[in-house]
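Lab channel / #folding
Pinned by the channel admin:
"Please post every new chain as: sequence first, then the structure tokens as a reply. Keep commentary short and put observations after the output so the thread stays searchable."

First post following the new format, from NK:
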Amino acid sequence: MSPLSDTTNLAPAMAGTDLYTHIKHMTYTTGVSYGLTLIIEVILGFFYGGGSANIEVVNQILTTLDSQFNINIVFLIPPVLVMVCAFKKIPAIPGITAGVLSAAILGFLFQGNGFGDFLTAGYGGYTSSTGVEAVDSLLTKGGFSSMLYAISIVICAMMFGGIMEHTNQLKVIVNKILQKAHSKSSLITATVLTALGANIVLCDQYMAVVMAGRMYAQAPAGCMLRRIRTEGFTRKTCRGPSKTAPR
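Reply from TO:
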């Protein structure tokens, strides 16, 4: 449901609706899922308890972080700024950019980073070498280069979808399906099954979102059907052998 999520932005764009309308109508089902999960977790918490915590490990992590970084409350500005942008319904790219630039400025002021450090971390990621495994595994992350595989899949999916749309291949497929779908319930069923089939056959969530989204973009739809359409493409990702979907 995050306005910064990749599939949350891609799905409504392919289905022909705007991002925040999509998120608004996702709350009808996602909110229920969150509520049920919270209830289940609370109930399980009464039956299962953790053992005693290893305070020495926690203190080691905190000490290492304090020695490596200048931890200050002002570093909450970037995430707060991103949340404010999301609340103000600012598009994802400007919102993320605002968070990145504010974090870079704070890095210059408080951490002693240079412009080259900012570019290096942005492209190649950050590698932590504190010698404490828990800290290094937590802080070592990839940058732009680590996302190139997923980005290339999105580009290929859009190219493939554009070819199928402009050669009317998608139109022929959709017309055959819509001939059998004479009600909202049948259209919802067709949409969900198409999403599941696309994830299984295409083996990638981005290609499934683009292909299935463009297939039904011209079909009659109110807000409910658009929600089912966009949710169906992303929620069925884990049902198929998707290679770029997070697990």
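NK: DSSP finds twelve helices and no strands in the chain.
TO: also worth noting, The CA atoms of residues 18 and 144 lie 26 Å apart.
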